[in-house]
Amino acid sequence: xxxxxxxxxxxxxLLDGEFTGYDLARQFDASVSNFWHALPQQIYGExxxxxxxxxxxxxxxxxxxxxxxRIFSLTTLGRxxxxxxxxxxxxxxxxxxxxxxxxxxxxTAQLLLLADLVDARKKRRLAKLERYQQTRARxxxxxxxxxxxxxxxxxxxxxxxxxxxxxxxxTIAWCEWAADALxxxxxxxxxxxxxxxxxx
Amino acid sequence: xxxxxxxxxxxxxLLDGEFTGYDLARQFDASVSNFWHALPQQIYGExxxxxxxxxxxxxxxxxxxxxxxRIFSLTTLGRxxxxxxxxxxxxxxxxxxxxxxxxxxxxTAQLLLLADLVDARKKRRLAKLERYQQTRARxxxxxxxxxxxxxxxxxxxxxxxxxxxxxxxxTIAWCEWAADALxxxxxxxxxxxxxxxxxx
DNA sequence: TTATCCATGTAATCGGTTACATGATTGT
DNA sequence: ACAATCATGTAACCGATTACATGGATAA
Lengths: 200, 200
Fold this sequence. Notes:
Shape of chain A: elongated
Strand content of chain A: 5-15%
Strand order of the largest sheet of chain A: 1-2
Oligomer: homodimer
Helix content of chain A: 55-70%
Largest sheet of chain A: 2 strands, antiparallel
Order of helices and strands of chain A: HHHEEHHHHH
Largest interface: A-B, 63 and 63 residues
Number of strands of chain A: 2
């Protein structure tokens, strides 16, 4: 059949507890933003489908000063479906990165602006890295990594988090290197005259 | 307006020369696979639209023992459009990684199978890394990185390539670490009995 | 007073994948 | 004999984003 990976990202998140559609979208940002993302609209739709298929179930919580909630949790069927998917064959994922397209196509005139875009990415990645490191400290709770990997009931979330941390670190290092290279080259081009064929 | 990034990935690739739709899809695999990918069908469609809008133009080459080709190249308008887009504001790209979802959701019973999936990723990444390193050696052509960054008419492709190399290296290192962790933990769980609550 | 948060959804559209179709040529 | 390569497309579908809609509660 098809991909439908959002479905399994939702089921995986529901391993950690009960959530409303609204909360799931925010939970994605908190714990799973490393490798998945979805808007509430999409999640509501997927939850509806999965409820019809019996993979999740909802209990309604009536609130006074707030809109009512529907809190979803996994059913046994949902757990089984997730378990089967985990080890099912999957095809390579393709990276798409708009900034690298821009970089690839950039000419002399745009080097400094590109350096700024690279800086902006670095800032965003730094913020993410800090959040991941806080999460790491929280889940380790004083234990060493080795201890944690022996004791924790599920080590997957930690392994995935570590992937995110490494990725952000590496991205930040590349950003610094690339921004430098862009500025050095832009300075050199400026020194030697704006027009390519107008040498001294 | 909209994203339409495929459009700009195509225009960026056409900076390097003329291509048929078929060749563009393969060129994506060769030089741009680091940060973009598309199937021929999609490229044909995009080329058609861009031709109508005057961003690219085609000359037809009649062949005997092969189907005829339409070879596309950039127009001045296409170059301008690309130039404008390069420094236009763009929003953060979201990573989606199915393998990490699987990992996140994995229970004790699946650890060894997950380790195999991680190994499989490592193999694929190693193959990509080797291809990128060959490309790197080819574009450097004996020069040092520093020399190249001063001399090359466009440094963007090298900066983007370097991002790919770092990414693959880092991914491979993580794969090795994660596969180890999975196998160590799986061995420990096996030693202490398959049933969680069946301790000695 | 304006904006943001909670909480839910519908509708339109777009971007990407899969399936289907053609047909000669070259390699295993 | 069979598969892959070259070369082009169409049609159906699915997944994801954007826009729109509601409406009270709290924070700036």
